[in-house]
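Work Package 4 report. The design task specified in the project plan requires that, given a folded chain encoded as structure tokens, an amino acid be chosen for each position. We show below one input record used in the internal validation round.
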């Protein structure tokens, strides 16, 4: 279970880095439906991107996103294991 949480945290760290590189590459795109979809995906997968932009938040965004994804994985995996260990009612 610990390995899964670590992998989810690593994924959470990589996602804002990926979006940052993609945003840098596509920064000159004109406003369209596709750019709205793009930024919608960014904000859903990396909610800390909405924090006010300064040097501290730029550096902290991958770490905050990793903590979010790791915490969600921890909660999900604990709920799943608790549900599988619960006794079944007699029939």
């Amino acid at each position: 279970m610990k390995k899964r949480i670590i992998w989810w945290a690593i994924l959470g760290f990589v996602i804002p880095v990926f979006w940052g590189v993609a945003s840098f590459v596509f920064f000159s795109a004109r406003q369209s439906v596709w750019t709205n979809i793009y930024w919608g995906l960014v904000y859903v997968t990396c909610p800390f991107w909405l924090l006010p932009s300064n040097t501290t938040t730029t550096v902290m965004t991958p770490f905050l996103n990793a903590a979010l994804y790791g915490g969600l994985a921890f909660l999900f995996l604990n709920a799943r294991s608790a549900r599988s260990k619960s006794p079944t009612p007699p029939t």
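The chain has one domain: 2-82. Validation will be extended to a larger panel in the next phase.
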